[in-house]
Design a protein that fits this description.
about 30% helix, alpha/beta, eleven-stranded mixed β-sheet
Length: about 625
């Protein structure tokens, strides 16, 4: 496989001059001040934009593409691995899952890729923006898809959604990591990651800069951008998306100057995102002068102006109560909640500890579980959401998410995270150690943006009891119940405003989402935004949860349908509305039929499983 050819890496002075020449007479948006000049590479001759040369077989391979030298991977190897990691973290690519068969595309798309770093006015750290421009970009159709990474992922965190829909159609795709990403920093030396994904040398621009630690005892902690940027990036998600939109026009002015001017007025722009990316595009929907003509938000994490519940509220609540609640009789049929058919021992320990802390009054373990379930139901959870939440509960995901978000909301640094948390590599004894060169080199390509993962772990104040994480979770919950805390103030800055009038919006959410529950987020936002006069359609999908990537597991594939097919259909509908004037489909409560599982085999997904999609 040939390496991509570096066409140019424009220095800032040359970039500003080139962009000024492109926009001074054409009426396009004024150039942004970039922290790092555009890094431009072409992907052809065995490499491509959508699959990084891996193709369908490579993306479906459960083993990641290898590094020739694990301690010093090349930019090409890092990009290929990042693309593989993000595809597999978002989409169900398992055989029989339907991807590439009757929805989605894994066909290679050649073209150019542009990366830059840009900082929002008044903020401390840059966010990474990227534009993928396919070779068959249609200058007449002028289609741009603008997106933000899901979760806290790096710049390729929306490639399986926005890239896979837009690139095969000849659209440019503009991405932002929305101020999070995987440019972790070992504070032992403070080296960040450069635009090419490698550890930066002195003087190079980096996507996350943290000073090296001076003095102190023990192993230096690892800085994670979402937690430690000092910017509370969630409060600016919409502005990040808007900057990606502006950057896309700057790129097109450079790449296709003869077809200019490139302006918001003459270029169609659809914003799309899933999970946190879905929340980001809804926040962009409320801003003026973004150039966005339609919005598609899938399973969005968004706090509406009124109603719903904040992520930190319901996730800290779930972290405390869900392990116990999952032992209730309503979940006896949830296999992941019943290891070897038995009630969870850890769940019984949590029930007992909640009783000891005066939070439960029942004495019998089963009665305690029923009481914990009722607590969650009284707060708006559904049994379907609790059942799907077993994934987050079993893997201690709630605590990891809450520790990261608490630090972001309170704008704390690496050494003063709330509740005494930190991030570090751990040795076999469970104690912090220095990361190896190979671990560190792979953070940019392999991490999800929230530890644990890629060799970085969450370090908390674990207690030597049958329930070692309880005190951690109680501490994190107290930051919510204290209405005067810095965490509460940071959360309030993330509350959405009404979207622009007459902006077409489609919101989709799984009825059984166990990470971002539909009643608290997508459903609540849709009800509130419609009451504010928004031009919004809402699709509620039955038997759907948050993680398509897990549906290759028969236990989950036989219970849930994927969300991605509905997202692609909503994008089709939005594009036909903009390009051909076709009316948008209406609201929908979609009834689905999960795949059957018999004789040890999971039946292939068919369009009939997905129900009647508008």
């Amino acid at each position: 496989m040939k390496s991509p050819r570096l066409l140019r890496s424009l220095p800032l002075a040359g970039l500003a001059l080139a962009l000024s020449a492109c926009t001074s007479t054409g009426g396009g948006p004024s150039p942004m001040d970039l922290d790092a000049g555009i890094d431009l590479r072409t992907y052809r001759d065995g490499d491509d934009l959508l699959t990084a040369g891996l193709g369908a077989a490579g993306l479906r391979n459960p083993a990641p593409p290898a590094f020739a030298d694990p301690a010093a991977p090349t930019p090409t190897e890092l990009r290929r691995r990042a693309v593989w990691t993000n595809w597999r973290g978002i989409a169900d690519l398992a055989p029989g899952g339907g991807y590439g068969e009757f929805y989605g595309s894994l066909a290679p798309v050649t073209g150019r890729e542009y990366h830059a770093l840009v900082t929002l006015p008044g903020r401390k750290q840059p966010h990474r923006v990227m534009v993928q421009l396919p070779d068959d970009f249609d200058s007449d159709a002028r289609c741009i898809v603008v997106t933000a990474s899901s979760g806290s992922r790096g710049i390729y965190g929306a490639i399986a959604l926005a890239g896979a829909w837009g690139l095969p159609r000849g659209c440019a795709v503009a991405y932002t990591d929305k101020g999070a990403g995987t440019g972790y920093v070992d504070t032992a030396d403070g080296r960040g990651f450069a635009l090419d994904g490698q550890l930066a040398e002195a003087g190079q621009a980096v996507e996350f800069r943290v000073p090296a630690r001076t003095g102190g005892d023990g192993v230096a902690p690892i800085a994670v951008k979402h937690a430690h940027s000092g910017d509370n990036p969630e409060a600016d998600w919409g502005r990040h998306v808007a900057q990606a939109a502006r950057f896309s026009l700057q790129v097109l002015s450079l790449a296709h100057p003869d077809d200019g001017p490139w302006t918001f007025a003459n270029t169609r722009m659809i914003a799309v995102g899933v999970s946190n990316g879905g929340g980001a595009v809804l926040r962009a929907a409320e801003l003026p002068d973004t150039g966005i003509d339609a919005v598609v938000a899938i399973s969005p994490n968004v706090l509406p102006g009124d109603g719903g519940r904040a992520l930190y509220d319901y996730s800290t609540d779930a972290a405390l109560w869900m392990p116990c609640a999952l032992n209730a009789a309503a979940f006896d049929g949830v296999v992941l909640a019943r290891a070897k058919g038995e009630k969870s021992v850890a769940g019984m320990s949590r029930c007992g500890m909640l009783k000891a802390r005066g939070l439960l009054d029942a004495s019998d373990p089963q009665a305690q579980a029923e009481q914990a379930r009722q607590h969650l139901l009284d707060g708006g959870w559904t049994d379907g959401g609790i059942a799907a939440g077993v994934i987050s509960s079993n893997f201690d995901l709630w605590r990891a998410v809450n520790a990261t978000y608490a630090s972001a909301y309170a704008r704390t640094g690496v050494a003063d995270m709330p509740c005494g948390f930190s991030f570090a590599a751990l040795g076999p004894d469970g104690q912090p150690r220095a990361p190896t060169p190979a671990e560190r080199a792979a953070w940019w390509s392999d991490a999800s943006g929230i530890p644990p993962g890629a060799g970085v772990s969450l370090v908390g104040e674990l207690t030597a009891t049958a329930d070692p994480t309880l005190d951690d979770n109680l501490c994190l919950r107290a930051l919510w119940t204290d209405t005067g805390s810095a965490v509460r103030a940071g959360i309030e800055q993330t509350r959405a405003a009404p979207p622009r009038k007459q902006l077409p919006i489609i919101v989709l959410h799984g009825a059984d989402d166990g990470l971002v529950p539909e009643p608290f987020s997508g459903g609540a936002y849709a009800r509130w935004a419609k009451a504010q006069g928004a031009d919004l359609r809402y699709w509620r999908i039955g038997n759907a949860q948050h993680f398509d990537a897990f549906l290759g597991l028969p236990l989950l594939g036989s219970r849930y349908v994927p969300m991605m097919p509905y997202g692609y259909r909503a994008l089709d509908a939005a594009w036909l509305h903009l390009a051909a004037g076709k009316p948008l489909p209406g609201d929908a409560d979609i009834r689905t039929t999960p795949r059957s599982f018999s004789d040890g085999k999971l039946a292939p997904l068919t369009p009939e499983n997905l129900g009647d999609i508008p």
